[in-house]
């Protein structure tokens, strides 16, 4: 264990992600036989088997999964170090909720002009990245942070509303209002079952929604389904995705959602980070 290196750990990490020696080798640019030999050497170094191997692929033992967590931490740290070493010419990674990707892209256009040598990597994802571990340089979150190593700023609060395509309204809701007791007769579009407890998903069910004709983890897919006339969906009032859609009035207002901007305290004096944060805040002040 004393001689364990990043090169050893990255082999195990690749096997974990690819779930096969063939896939791990491709990801690392190695042959399958070389990957197998490197894994054998790692297991010999730690004195135990780490990976089950079979015709169907690979599976890591519990003690190997703990090593994978270590490898992921090192990977994030090395990525962060590379970004920090090229302050004015490198990559700035920004993580945002999938549904906010368009808005955040627009908010960072001024930053792109000010720092043309910084490559911006904006990741839309339905998970809370670990900013403290530097999985991202800046993140927009839906919940408050509990870490004392992060700088957190309230970015904006928006309210959800119900929207539908012009064609759906013409065919099913000519009054542009969904009254109490009518929702069961309509089709709705929403996030997949993993996110059914989110406030706006619960709100649609409170309105009386019983049939979700289309669900997806992708906001792009949800938007496309609504524009195609599949059904009603909840979007933020100022969400660019709702442009061109018809707002449907409801008896009860949609829930509000706050957004928070967070970044690591170690980055607060980095000029490109400060510029990106300022660009986001300036845009949101105008559009919230």
Encode the helix/strand succession as letters.
HHHEEHEHHEEEHEEHEHEEEH
Radius of gyration: 23 Å
How many distinct domains?
A: 3
CATH class of the largest domain: Alpha Beta
Low-confidence segments, given as residue ranges, are none
Q: What is the fold named in CATH at topology level of the largest domain? A: D-Maltodextrin-Binding Protein, domain 2
Content-based structural category: alpha/beta
Count of strand segments = 12
**Envelope shape:** globular
- CATH homologous superfamily label of the largest domain: Periplasmic binding protein-like II
Defining key terms:
288 residues; alpha/beta; Arc Repressor Mutant, subunit A; D-Maltodextrin-Binding Protein, domain 2; eight-stranded mixed beta sheet; two-stranded antiparallel sheet; 10 helices; 12 strands; 25% strand
Explain this structure.
The structure is a single chain. The protein is α/β, with parallel strands linked by helices and 288 residues long. The protein has three domains: 6-81, Arc Repressor Mutant, subunit A, CATH 1.10.10; 85-155 and 258-287, D-Maltodextrin-Binding Protein, domain 2; 157-255, D-Maltodextrin-Binding Protein, domain 2 (3-Layer(aba) Sandwich), CATH 3.40.190.10. It is 39% helix and 25% strand. It has ten helices and twelve strands. The strands form three sheets. Strands 3, 4, 5, 6, 7, 10, 11 and 12 form an eight-stranded mixed sheet that branches. The protein has a two-stranded antiparallel ribbon with strand order 1-2. Strands 8-9 form a two-stranded parallel ribbon. Strand 8, helix 8 and strand 9 (211-216) form a beta-alpha-beta unit. Helix 1 packs across helix 4 (62-84) and helix 2 packs across helix 3 (32-46). The relative contact order is 0.14. The mean pLDDT is 86.
């Amino acid at each position: 264990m004393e001689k364990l290196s990043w090169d050893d750990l990255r082999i195990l990490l690749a096997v974990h992600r690819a779930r096969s020696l063939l896939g791990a080798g491709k990801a690392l640019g190695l042959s399958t036989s070389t990957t197998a030999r490197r894994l054998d050497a790692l297991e010999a170094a730690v004195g135990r088997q780490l990976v089950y191997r079979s015709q169907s692929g690979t599976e890591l033992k519990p003690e190997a999964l703990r090593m994978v967590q270590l490898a992921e931490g090192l990977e994030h740290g090395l990525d962060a170090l590379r970004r920090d070493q090229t302050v004015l010419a490198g990559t700035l990674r920004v993580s945002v909720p999938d549904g906010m990707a368009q808005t955040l892209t627009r908010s960072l256009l001024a930053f792109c002009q000010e720092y043309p040598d910084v490559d911006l990597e904006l990741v839309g994802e339905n998970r809370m990245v670990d900013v403290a571990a530097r999985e991202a340089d800046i993140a927009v979150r839906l919940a408050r942070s509990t870490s004392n190593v992060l700088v957190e700023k309230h970015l904006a609060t928006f309210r959800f509303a119900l929207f539908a395509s012009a064609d759906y309204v013409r065919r099913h809701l000519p009054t542009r209002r969904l009254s109490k007791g009518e929702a069961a007769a309509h089709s709705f579009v929403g996030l997949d079952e993993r996110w059914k407890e989110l406030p706006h998903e619960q709100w649609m069910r409170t309105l009386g929604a019983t049939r979700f004709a289309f669900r997806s983890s992708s906001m792009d897919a949800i938007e496309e389904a609504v524009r195609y006339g599949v059904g009603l969906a909840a979007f933020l009032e100022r969400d660019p995705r709702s442009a061109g859609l018809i707002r449907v009035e409801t008896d009860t207002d949609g829930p509000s959602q706050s957004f928070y901007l967070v970044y690591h305290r170690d980055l607060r004096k980095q000029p490109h980070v400060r510029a990106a944060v300022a660009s986001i805040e300036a845009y949101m002040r105008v559009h919230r």
